[in-house]
């Protein structure tokens, strides 16, 4: 059993402070600064590692990851419509959140693996970027149904030029271009301070999540169940894909985490612009107040355990 | 100080609307406006300024009455149903 990483305690501290209405509030600029640093750190690190190996073999894997995002969003939409009886825009918006990924959860999973000394493939940072966008587009298509596709311009702009996609891709490019040597001057900020920045980010996320806990009572048991069960099911799908793609147990854990996480940076902004009739309180309550804390505390260790089991089962030599 | 022909239009709305609101104001030929990050509570719950997705903006526009009414109409037709917002119009004095 791996010891619990202390960064999780920062999230709990923030959530507790929020629930107790303590005198703790970080300005929006701090939140944006911290998330910018995290996005760039993940991108830069992935870029440096990716530059060391040929990228040509990645295309089929990236296609599989895109397909994963599309399928997860579609399945989530179907569950929300058939079992939750949610209105079409609400179901589509929540589906987009769950098909897309959470950078914060990914960062915590990376910290978890570092803490446990488990290696993982650097291309997972690229998978993170690639998984972010397709589900958002699927969500928008599902919400609009057969309506005319008016005004896709601002919507595509929001989806493709959102802060998280831009900074992750920018970080990957800069990291790849600069290489390990070029990055050495930047490492004190982006590599050495990674866990400290993540801890502060989680403190802030705890505060923000606590504001949405009230929504749990209003939106009923179905949403709570959805936000707890779907991540595990999706995590299992992600882990299976990781195994099929030949990822290491660490890489499989990260892909399971990506599949099991729900977006709260890119998706809320994109859905508010593209599907304004959806109630943002529903998707934020589910992704931020339930799924995110669940993944931090229970989900990531669970996905890691699942990945190890799957690998052990898969690699058993066939006899006879 | 004397009464001005201009009116002061104040809009408090979700910060998610900032980009499209600014585009609409430019399209209507509004010469200037001031935008401030804001927080508070209203019929759509508490709006906090700590996070981009739950923040509010307060937009102040000095313009002639006709333009102000056109902006108000646009808000109620296109945005008021789906977005948290309120707006009001005031007379102004100028020195």
Top keywords for this entry?
heterodimer, A: 320 residues, mainly alpha, 78% helix, B: 95 residues, alpha+beta, four-stranded antiparallel beta sheet, 6 strands, 26% helix
Structural class of chain B: alpha+beta
- First-residue to last-residue Cα separation of chain A: 34 Å
Strand proportion of chain B: over 45%
What is the H-and-E element order of chain A?
HHHHHHHHHHHHHHH
Helical run tally of chain A: 15
Shape of chain B: globular
Rg from Cα of chain A: 19 Å
Please tell me what the overall shape of chain A is. globular
User: Gap between N and C termini of chain B, in Å?
Assistant: 4 Å
- Quaternary state of the chains: heterodimer
Biggest pleated sheet of chain B: 4 strands, antiparallel
Largest pleated sheet of chain A: none
- The number of helices of chain B is 2
Concise account of the structure shown:
Chain A has helices at 7-19, 28-50, 58-82, 88-99, 103-115, 124-132, 134-144, 152-160, 163-183, 187-192, 194-212, 214-244, 249-260, 266-274, 280-314.
């Amino acid at each position: 059993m791996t010891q619990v990483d202390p960064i999780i305690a920062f999230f709990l501290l923030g959530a507790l402070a929020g629930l107790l209405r303590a005198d703790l509030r970080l300005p929006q600029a701090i939140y944006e600064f911290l998330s910018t640093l995290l996005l760039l750190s993940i991108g830069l690190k992935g870029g440096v590692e990716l530059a060391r190996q040929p990228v040509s073999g990645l295309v089929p894997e990236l296609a599989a990851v895109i397909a994963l995002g599309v399928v997860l969003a579609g399945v989530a939409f179907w569950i929300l419509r058939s079992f939750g009886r949610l209105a079409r825009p609400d179901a589509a918006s929540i589906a987009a959140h769950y098909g897309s990924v959470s950078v914060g959860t990914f960062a915590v999973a990376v910290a978890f693996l570092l803490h446990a000394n488990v290696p993982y493939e650097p291309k997972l940072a690229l998978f993170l970027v690639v998984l972010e966008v397709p589900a958002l587009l699927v969500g928008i298509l599902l919400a609009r149904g057969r309506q005319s596709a008016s005004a896709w311009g601002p919507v595509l702009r929001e989806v493709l030029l959102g802060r998280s996609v831009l900074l992750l891709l920018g970080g990957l490019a800069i990291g790849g271009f600069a290489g390990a040597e070029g990055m050495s001057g930047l490492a004190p900020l982006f590599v050495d301070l990674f866990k400290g920045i993540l801890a502060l980010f989680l403190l802030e996320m705890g505060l923000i999540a606590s504001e949405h806990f009230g929504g749990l009572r209003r939106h009923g048991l179905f949403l709570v169940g959805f936000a707890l069960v779907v991540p595990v099911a999706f995590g299992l799908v992600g882990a299976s894909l990781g195994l099929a793609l030949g990822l290491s147990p660490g890489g499989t854990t990260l892909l399971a985490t990506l599949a099991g996480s729900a977006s709260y940076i890119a998706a809320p902004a994109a859905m508010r612009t593209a599907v304004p009739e959806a109630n943002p309180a529903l998707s934020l309550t589910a992704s931020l107040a339930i799924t995110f804390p669940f993944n931090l505390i229970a989900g990531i260790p669970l996905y890691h355990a699942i990945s190890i089991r799957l690998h052990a089962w898969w690699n058993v030599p066939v006899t006879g | 100080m004397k009464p001005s022909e201009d009116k002061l239009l104040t809009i408090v709305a979700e910060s998610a609307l900032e980009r499209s609101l600014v585009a609409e104001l430019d399209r209507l030929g509004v010469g200037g406006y001031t935008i401030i990050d804001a927080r508070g509570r209203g019929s759509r719950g508490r709006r906090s300024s700590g996070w981009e997705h739950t923040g509010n903006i307060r937009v102040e526009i000095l313009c002639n009455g006709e333009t102000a009414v056109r902006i108000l109409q646009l808000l109620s037709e296109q945005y008021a149903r789906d977005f948290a917002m309120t707006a009001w119009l005031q007379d102004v004095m100028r020195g």
